[in-house]
Amino acid sequence: MTGQAEQNVVIVGGGFAGFQVAKLLSKKLDARRYNLILINSRSYAVALPASVRLVVDAESKLEETSFVKLDRIYANGNGETKVGVVTSIEAQPGVSGGAVVLATGERISYAALILATGSKWTGPSAIPENEDDVLPFVNAWRQKFAKANHVVIVGGGAVGIELAGEVKDLYPTKKVTIVHGGNQLINAAYGSSLRKGLEKRLHARGVQFMFNEYIDDIPEAGVVGVSTRSGKHISDADLVVSARGGRPNTDYVTSLGEDALNGHGFVKIKPTMQLLNHPSIFALGDIIDWAEQKQAAKLMWHVPVTVGNVVSFLNGATPTKTYTGATEMIVITNGKKGGMGYFGFFGGFTLGDWFAWLVKSRDFMVPHFRKDLGY
């Protein structure tokens, strides 16, 4: 470690949650007391929402803008980014401090630990952790979409909807079908106005739907045709794409014992964002066991609670900031020029294409993402 202090504050994960926590902590921690270390599998953060356009549209050149180095986020240079993958945590219940162990075997001790490893994805959103594999992965998906005649998207959540819009933008005549387990797109957290509105917009572009259906196994490359769980066959499907929701990236947390995670792999936390039995370990973002939709927008509430409580803990005070939940909101794109937004205020309301274009569709907020990272 390059830091000169005796104790470390370690953040695991350099996505939206991790780098925002690092930015704030770098302003608040005394560098004479603590080394701030952000551990991430890559040297850069990924603007993950933009991945649906990145893997379809080569002309977007998003590979040049949506991967942003994690070297300008620290105030006064108070912090460092370490490329690595944490495989386990060494900690005793009720005892402060511990260490994280990397895949290389390196062990890094911590006075406070923040877990922000986000979700694991399948299909084209599963950007590889190894930097050398990223561009070949992106280019391979671009070629698959270009060659396909009938794209079948498995999952009608936000990722599946946005992917369908991107394919229709670049290939308006290409056949696209969304297979979704529910009876409407996305889920009931957002109300029927948004769900029906998005279906109508995609249908107008020629996207077809199979509701209340599941595809359990994604066919190997080159296989034409796929069957749903109920036995319905899509004979001409020559590209079947998984757009299922993410699952928490928390395998390494199992080292803390079976009571650290719930049955779905989410980290059990107190409203202070601390783990139940580990006062010096905090968690935020998609990985926490909290009854809410998993979205980057929640970080407006997660980050200040986490950072404030980490600082209190390190100063020997009892963390008092609490997270009580956040209003549901979402913007889902339909290509570069359309989409819809939902806001849970005042009983819930939606906004249409112009709003979606203004805040997300035109650039997936990549310029804002870059600015947030100092670029």
UniProtKB/TrEMBL annotation:
InterPro entries: FAD/NAD-bd_sf, FAD/NAD-binding_dom. It comes from the Eukaryota. GO terms for molecular function: electron-transferring-flavoprotein dehydrogenase activity; flavin adenine dinucleotide binding. GO terms for cellular component: cytoplasm. The chain crosses the membrane at residues 339-359. Keywords: FAD, Flavoprotein, Membrane, Oxidoreductase, Transmembrane, Transmembrane helix. Residues 8-297 form the FAD/NAD(P)-binding domain. Gene3D superfamilies: 3.50.50.100. The keyword Oxidoreductase applies. PANTHER family: APOPTOSIS-INDUCING FACTOR 1 (PTHR43735), FERROPTOSIS SUPPRESSOR PROTEIN 1 (PTHR43735:SF3). Belongs to the FAD-dependent oxidoreductase family. This is FAD/NAD(P)-binding domain-containing protein. It comes from Suillus luteus UH-Slu-Lm8-n1. The lineage of its organism: Eukaryota, Fungi, Dikarya, Basidiomycota, Agaricomycotina.
